[in-house]
Amino acid sequence: MVVDSRSSKQSLFQRMPGSIKLLMALAMILAAGLIPLENWPAHGLLIGIIYIGLSIAGVTTGYLLRRLALFLPLLLVFGLSAPAVRSDGAAWSWTISLWLRCTVSFLAGLWLIHVLPFRELLITLRRWRCPAVLIAMLGFMYRYTFILWDELHRLQNARAARDFGSGPWWRTWSTNSQMIGLLLLRAMERAERTHRAMLARGWDGSIRFLEFDE
Amino acid sequence: MANTEPAAIELRRLTFQYPNGRIALDEITCSIPTGERIAVVGPSGAGKSTLLMHLNGLLPAPPITSDDKTQVFVHDRGVTRQRLRDIRRQVGFLFQDPDDQLFCPTVRDDVAFGPLNLGLSREEVMSRVEAGLAAVGMADCSTRNPSELSTGERKRVCLAGILACQPAILVLDEPTSNLDPRARRQLLEILRAFQGTLVVATHDLDFVIDLCTRVLVLESGKVQADGATEGILSDPLIMDRYGLEVPWRLRKP
Prior knowledge:
The complex is a heterodimer. By secondary structure, chain A is mainly α. Chain A has seven helices and no strands. The two termini of chain A are about 25 Å apart. In chain B, β9 and β10 form a beta hairpin. Chain B is of the alpha/beta class. In chain B, the strands form two sheets. A six-stranded mixed beta sheet of chain B has the order 6-7-8-3-9-10, with helices on both faces. In chain B, strands 2-1-4-5 form a four-stranded antiparallel beta sheet, with helices on one face. Chain B has a single domain (about 10-105, about 160-250), classed as Rossmann fold (3-Layer(aba) Sandwich), CATH 3.40.50.300. Classes of the chains: A mainly alpha, B alpha/beta. Chains A and B meet through α5, α6 and α7 of A and α2, α3, α4 and α5 of B.
């Protein structure tokens, strides 16, 4: 998984304090939101700055294009919904504005993932006095994303071992939907067991953190 | 002179029925003296995990106050909802799947979880985390994500998280499942060093021979046999009747 596998590299950005990196990413997203659409060179400049930042962080153009290939089609479809329901000229400007701002935000987020390890992000959020429940939820999400990812791979392997080549598309879809349902059920069962494990170690509903010396 | 020390764990006609109507535990009565190492063995579905969860007050919601309805006693004190915090301070529970227990983003955050819930000072928590990780030989892995560790390492981190709470009683559910021989041996050495009371539910009978002095055979939620490890595990009649096998080490030529 991309999280932490790249952010542990040692570049100029990776060595910077977590707060600065988070501030920089938020500033980019804020700037993209505030700069008027007419000022398109400024948007271009923002994208250029983030691209340089990604290059310094060790992200290759090929990797970036692959990630954009996942994101841009969704954005394209979503953006086209405005001209489909509005007939005035403002619809297209809204669409272009959405495309530009979302792309800048996506790139800023991608840059942040590549320069800020998740644990450092949690520590930064703690220092910024974000609500403890939110930080705990992020921590759980991070930890269990790996576990559910492994679970999904096990399900896929089990299917691959017994599907004897691809069947008709409706059968594949039916199996996939059953797998998603099974994954959800297993996630719920795991949540129940994890809750018990928390209770067994004295959890009383309060979220407590400890700052370790780095 | 008679031993006046209260039993570490006492079960008085412990009965438990799951919501689907299946009786998991049927009037189990048993006393585990302080410092004893006992194994709970039996076929799958015998009620071993259910029994263990009762020792930590995890199943079901225990009675609120009265000892009259209480069926589980830890150091002579009934497991009631009011005393759960105190009971869980005394009883450490190792779950079968380490991924259920390791829910924090880093190893040391996870080991610190229990001591933080005990309300200890920052210094005390840090010292317990260091001691816990050192006890299981995982001191070098404190900043790692649990997902990067092997199953054996995860089990050891789970154990560190429990040892950091300094429980008097350790309850282990299938501690050797999915472990390779080296990880199993390491776990055995860690557990042998533990000074308190130990309750282990397992299918690994060689592990029982190496660690426990007493065995409880459970089947259909009932205690079918209770006695010294070697006596029970070397009895082919008992073992065969309850879906178990006499370990090679105890087979008579």
